[in-house]
Amino acid sequence: MPDADRPPMVSLRAVDKHFGDLHVLQSVDLDVAAGEVVVVIGPSGSGKSTLCRTINRLEPVDSGQVLVDGVPVPAEGAALARLRADVGMVFQSFDLFAHKTVLDNLCLAPTMVRGTPKAQARREAMALLERVGIADKAGHFPAQLSGGQQQRAAIARALAMAPKVMLFDEPTSALDPEMVAEVLAVMTSLAEDGMTMVVVTHEMGFARRAADRVVFMDAGRIVEVAPPEEFFAGGGSDRTRSFLSAVLTH
Amino acid sequence: MSALVDAWPQLLAGLGTTVFVLVTSAVGALVLGTLVTVARVSPVPVLRAAAFGYVQVLVNVPLLALLLLAVFALPDAGLIAPLVTTAIIVLTVYEAAYVAEALRSGINTVPRGQVEASRALGFTLSQTLRLVVVPQAARAVVQPLGNVLIALLMNTALTATVGVVELTSATNKVNLVQAQPIPIFGAAGLVYMALALVIGLGAGRIEKRVAIRR
């Protein structure tokens, strides 16, 4: 549950971003409290992935401010690398390191970025693999895993850095339907453990179940922010209602 | 066959020069080509443009023209170096462009997402390159680099035209005396084939050894 006394873990203030002529983020403001789970939904091209990627500056913003745990996200360089180490990210396409075993995928950043001793990194990695249910795959290479297993490994890899906040950029969009559930289960348990999470997804069930707040985006703007029960009750704007009727009836 | 036996020392000396030129320019081209590739993928626009220009110029000029230019034009401009050295430098500079292209194709085989994941985990640019990009790119370029080396081997024969007495030139000289072109050039051809086979098999073995399990 969100902790109201602390400053926001993530804060976007009047963020603007263009891709060429496309105004992909239009003066976006959003605070995510420590321990809060914010689920961002919206149609394709609404800017929700871009919003997620500005938080660790995989996408630099044109103007406005992005703060993580009260610290403005710095320009590319060593300071940004340090900040990114504290911000876990999970991608649509898993993006595990193909030349490393699952265990080594988890150990690489803790040992190389944090200087964690190898033995300790391995112990912690095994505990995380246990937690996401693929400890038996520790010695396998990514290509030997199913999509769902790869994504759970990718979540564990991000968690291995003990991040302050986890970003999920459409984590289940590339998965076969039967594998979506196993990944969402891991994410739900993470949310229950109090991890601060920003989740861009099309999974309305997850939004209902795990979100503290749902953010609805359209055409580069945040159209609506509401707790899930209120959001899905359909009391919001016309744009929200038409989106909900499209996604909830298919 | 007696022609070959009589001319044995001359042919062997020619082969020695071929192997010497091959090995030195291969090492040079790998080093220079790697530097060009680093420039090509660097975040500095000037370096990227320079590396791009380097590759474009060299793959679009015939090697023979470069050899003639270096051997006859540079001394005219006051730059004089031993003939074999000049040939090695030209081959190095020329093949480096092809090495750079092979390395770049290898880097392109590493999915962009893995680079983003590395950055998201807090790796610096050099860590990303060292830990994620290069180990995977290196696996993908073994065979293409083998092919560049084989092409380089064949290209060493062009240095005969500017006076380097390597295998082809030595073979030609022997034939001028012995006038038995079929066994003499046939034997030289077999030697080139054998060398190419060694490079090709070597590349194949290395590729198998470093392959990623799937």
UniProtKB/TrEMBL annotation, chain B:
InterPro entries: AA_ABC_transptr_permease_3TM, ArtM/GltK/GlnP/TcyL/YhdX-like, MetI-like, MetI-like_sf. Signal peptide: none annotated. Keywords: Amino-acid transport, Cell membrane, Membrane, Transmembrane, Transmembrane helix, Transport. The keyword Transmembrane applies. The keyword Cell membrane applies. It is a multi-pass membrane protein. Residues 15-203 form the ABC transmembrane type-1 domain. The chain crosses the membrane at residues 12-39, 51-73, 79-100, 145-164, 184-204. Its main location: membrane. It is found in: Cell membrane. Coiled coil: none annotated. Belongs to the binding-protein-dependent transport system permease family. HisMQ subfamily. PANTHER family: AMINO-ACID ABC TRANSPORTER PERMEASE PROTEIN YHDX-RELATED, MEMBRANE COMPONENT OF AMINO ACID ABC TRANSPORTER. This is Amino acid ABC transporter permease.
